[in-house]
Amino acid sequence: MDGWIDIRRKARAIHKKALLETGGDRRAEFLTVAAAKADDLKVRYVEAGQTFGHGVFGLLERENLIVNVLKGQKKPDEAVVIAHELGHFHLHLDPTHEVTNRSAGLGGDPVENAMGSGEGYSPRERKEVQADVFAGEFLCPSDWLRDQFVTHGKRPSDIAKDLGLPRDLVLHQTIRALLLPPLTEAPPPQTGGVFALDDSQKTAALWANGNILVDAGPGTGKTRTLVSRVEHLLQGIGPSSILALTFSNKAAEEMRDRISTMNPAAAIEMWAGTFHSFGYELIQKWPSAVGRSPKVRILDEAAQLELLEENLDKLPLRYYQNLYEPAYELVHLLRAISRCKDEGVTPAEYLAEARAMQQSAADPEAAEKADRAVEVAETYEIYQKALQEADAVDFGDIILLAAKLIKENKEVRAYISGFKHVLVDEYQDVNFASARMLQEICSTGCSAWVVADQRQSIYRFRGAEPSNVESFAADFKGSRHSLNVNYRSSAPIVRTFQQFSSAMGDGGAMAGSWTAKRGAGGPVTLTVAPDVVAEAEAIRDHIEQLRQQGVAYSEQAILARTHLTLARITTILEKLGVPLVYLGDLFEREEISTLLSLLSIDAEYGGLGLMRVGTLSDYGATRADVLAVIGWAAQNRSRIIDALASIAAIPSLSTEGRAGLSRLASELAGLTDVSAWTMLTEWLFERSNHLLPLLGANNALGQQKLIAIYHLLKFCGEQATAGRKGRKALLERVRRLEALNYDSSFRRVASEASDMDAVRVMTIHGSKGLEFRAVHFPALATRYMPTNRQGNRCPPPPSLSRLAMQPSDHEAEEECLFFVGLSRARDHLFLSRAESYTTTRAGESKFLPAIQRVVAAQRYLGSGTVYTDDMPLIPPGATQERYLERDLETYMRCPARYRFTVVEGLRGGRDDSAYISFHRCVYQTVRWLETEREAGKTVGTEDGLRRLSETWQASDIAEHPFEPYYRRSAEGMVRAMVEAIAKETGQYERDEWEVPVGRHRVVLVPDRVVVTPEGAVSVQRVRTGRETKSEPDKPIYALLRRGAAQQFPRKKVSVETFYLATAKSVPTVAKNDDKAIGKYADAIAAIELGRFEPDPSDDRSCPNCPCYFTCHG
Fold it and tell me: Is 362 or 2 the better-scoring residue by pLDDT?
């Protein structure tokens, strides 16, 4: 048994039986005794070291029907140990199970799988977590617990005392009970539709003629065939002689589950898992052979980035330098390095090719490309050394080092030779390095049986190499065999994706042919709508029509190419009342932004989070009330929570606001310095009533919000387990995840949260391996399906072009994605597109003509309703004559930020970044150099560096981990400026300018104004970053030109960009200055109308904004 929901159902059933035996007594000590007795289990109390070693709290002996429990534990802990072993007894088949940890988490699927958990649970870890989940539901059933919380007002600490359980166990179970969908009865077992192996499946399962690749198209029963292959092999060899490898954890767990159903004992003894988990096991067994220790650890993407950041001062960064946020460029370097490892390219090989590029460069553009390649190679070399020094490996290393071990180490080869058969699933998704690893495994005498479908190769972007399928026969001297019967879909659906397959590849090279076992069905349709609103209405109509025909919401899915498309569609569907299972951008959801704002109070300075929390309906405070509290805290140098505790001393609060904020003060008392997990769980479940409206809503939208909160709490728990307990650190992590687009794993709904009757919503990538009775496939339009190819920030040398996704690779992957989307449906497939998604018209997808012969097209005009949430206008204050340019620039970037920081005067959020401190130190040093020259003093490089050092030591940056990196950059700028200023003549003007814009004046002080003795004027905007083509187009240059003409009439004026890194001055040229200055006029007009809508168009700007958590959602 593997499904989290099924585990909880099983535990509840055991609870009900035990409750009958106890006569309704729910206390843990009686329930566990009753349940053990019902299973003929004897509970035996033993001394430490008597039956098991120290550090073990309990041991199940299955054959002897004994649960051993360590003496001396507290009664609540004893109950948890026994319940945990009961879980093992009912869920698993291993002969023994030890309890070594009584502190269970929330269980279920890890939330941060792509970033923090790497390979997910190991098989043993998964069983332990399953037993924990069983214990929680058995000891404290979620339906009863929910009633205690909602109806009787009992909190986890109260319930723990009543039941004689640890408070933490009850807390975790309360979270499941309140935030996960209520447990439903298990669906009845499916009857009918089960077929014996067909001839093509039998041939594959019984194959005995060497290595074979089984071409398994969608719905052809590849998993059933694979399990039958295992069953056949077990007739002649033991399970420990079989090795089963997959591309993903999801596929590995499905394989283990199916094998366990067929032969539970074999599933325990067989090695089944991912290529990476198998490779990591080899490295752990023979670490010294690859230069590592037995404590070698895997670095996920976040840890890889941190490792590079720790070595910033060693990196030869020039083209890939980003002073504002180094990670923005480092992520591209890491992706380039990862691709090298996918293809087995070493740092030395890459550097050699890059050097050859330099030698052959015939023009400046070619020379720059070569220099960039050298920068990547040198960074790769430094990164590899850092990995070894850190006793760590990344995912690419795991495969490369494992293949090296198998090839070169006799002990490893002897171990591998114990496997007589290796089975591989989803072979089209493995990379070149994994294919080479498989070849090394087979070189020991192991026979390969692999399953693949080249038409479903959708992971090229992260290294998958579908050509492995084409070259299998040559690489492995093997055969190829196809499964040719589709058991999943109705004939019209099979006909549709079969028709498209004939257009895939070069000249239809991937055309497939399948017999539809299920026969006839309804037609496949394509709906064309005028806009995205009408398209969403058409999808709503199809969903409801199907529901009337008996197809539940939960049996339907909406698939799209990107999350952006899904967000556009689901925003409207939610307004139309369609129940959905979709989180979207977790950290920018309304309910999550509220909780992140709560965490930010006193974790990020300034108290901005109180603006969101205090104005909740729970407390009834106005913005003016909150501003008064924040102002009082700043004036009295008090923390916000302390200021709330002193609410009686703060004047000018509304009556309702004072009462509400006083209540908030009592709810937050004592939580100033606690972890994110503690603050949220204490506030949500012990102190406040914040969840009650959502729990009482009893609708899909309310349940979706509760599921989102569940995911946030899992994230907080995982961070605490990883040792990152501080709220400030967690908030910084959220900002980074969002800014770097590392949040994809948080968009998926965990499987334990999926038990609700709502339409599933996911990207095509997320749907891989799944099937649904009905699929709605929208946005089949230009730029949406297929998407445009993304550029490569780190293009490899031409001789290593295989490292970059070529246009043909992108086209092929998009074809595969469309094929996968078409083939997920069993009974109903509805395609749709809109003629516009934005102000630009969108034509039909280039993929649609290939299937138009088998698809029925129809037009849908929609209702014409507009589904928008207009931002209310903020009553304008007194009109101003003067506006600061920097404030208007803030407004043009984001009106909401202007409201927070300028209108309401809020300051706070993140501490000053290292970049801001660096920037300030350099500017102050440059200003000092100018002042010294004006005074007639001769200043040398050493003087400038000495002044920089003094300024540096007085700043915050001196203690920052990136300090050496920034110091090196700052010293380079100061050296350049010493030389540049020494050559300048004349005076520096530092006057404030007032530039007329309509009836207003815009105020600014130019960064540098140099007036020569001859009267020539250079007005300069100073930049610390690299020269960019877009810089001269910014409105401020038009404003500077107008201001300069006013300040220096009849003089020769040049408005320039001055780059500190090179001391280079780049003149700007007037281009439509009236239009550019009109942007300032438009901003002023909007401000005076009270328009302060958020502008989330810049994915990186928002997460770095101090108002991020307060504003979003």
Answer: 362
Q: How many CB atoms lie within 10 A of CB 288?
A: 8
Residue 533: its pLDDT value, please? Answer: 94
Rounded Cα gap, residues 89 and 92, in angstroms: 6
CB atoms near residue 419 (< 10 Å): 21
**207: CB partners within 8 A, 6+ apart:** 229, 449, 479, 481
Q: Residues 6 or more apart from 13 whose CB is under 8 A from it?
A: none
Distances (CA, A) of 142 to 9, 78, 179, 637, 664: 10, 21, 10, 45, 28
Higher pLDDT, 554 or 55: 554
Evaluated on CA atoms 895, 899, 902, 907, the torsion sign reads: negative
Q: In which band, very low, low, confident or very high, does the pLDDT at 1113 lie, cut at 50, 70 and 90?
A: low
Peptide bond just before 530 cis, omega within 30 deg: no
352/342 Cα distance (integer angstroms): 18
DSSP state of 344: T
Tell me the C-alpha distance between 682 and 675, whole Å.
11
Instruction: Tell me which of 289-298, 842-851, 872-881 is least confident.
Output: 872-881
Spatial separation of the C-alpha atoms in residues 1102 and 893, rounded to whole Å: 10
Cβ(778)–Cβ(565) below 8 Å? yes
Helix (H) or strand (E) holding 858: strand 856-859
Q: How far apart are CA 1087 and CA 901, in angstroms?
A: 13
Chain-centroid distance of CA 574 in Å reads 23
Which residues touch 697 (CB under 8 Å, ≥6 apart)?
Answer: 703
838: three-class secondary structure by DSSP? coil
Exposure string of 428-460, with b = 16+ CB inside 10 Å and e = fewer, is bbbbbbbbbbbebbbebebbbbbbbbbbbbbbb
Quote the pLDDT of residue 220: 93
Average pLDDT, the chain: 89
Question: How many angstroms separate the CA atoms of 715 and 729, rounded?
Answer: 13
In this predicted structure, the answer to whether residue 114 has a pLDDT above a threshold of 50 is no
251: Cα within 13 Å, side-chain hemisphere: 24
For 601-619, how does the pLDDT look when each residue is reduced to its tens digit (9 = 90+)?
999 988 899 999 999 999 9
Tell me how far apart the alpha carbons of residues 174 and 154 are, in angstroms, rounded to a whole number: 11
Q: What is the DSSP letter of 247?
A: S
Distance CA 334, CA 308 (A): 9
| Nearest Cα residue to 519 out of 492, 497, 496, 501 | 492
How would DSSP label each residue in 704-749? HHHHHHHHHHHHHHHHHHTT---HHHHHHHHHHHHHTT--GGGSSP
CA-based nearest residue to 457, from 811, 63, 83, 726: 811
- DSSP secondary structure string for all residues of 73-120: --HHHHHHHHHHHHHHHHH---SEEEE--------SS-TTTTTTSTT-
454: left (phi over 0), alpha (psi -120 to 50) or beta: alpha
Enumerate helices (H) and strands (E) in the chain, giving the number of each. 43, 29
What is the per-residue pLDDT for 270?
Answer: 83
Measured CA distances, 271 to 109, 294, 324 (Å): 21, 21, 47
Alpha carbon distances (Å) from 648 to 539, 622, 655, 661, 899: 54, 16, 11, 10, 28
What is the Cα–Cα distance from 742 to 751, expressed in whole angstroms? Answer: 21
CA-angle at 246, arms to 708 and 288, nearest 5°: 100
139: Cβ–Cβ under 8 A, 6 or more apart, which residues? 15, 28, 31, 32, 79, 80, 83, 163, 165, 169, 173
pLDDT for the residue numbered 753: 82
Measured on CA atoms in the order 257, 262, 268, 270, is the torsion positive or negative? Answer: negative
Lowest mean pLDDT among 88-97, 324-333, 549-558: 88-97
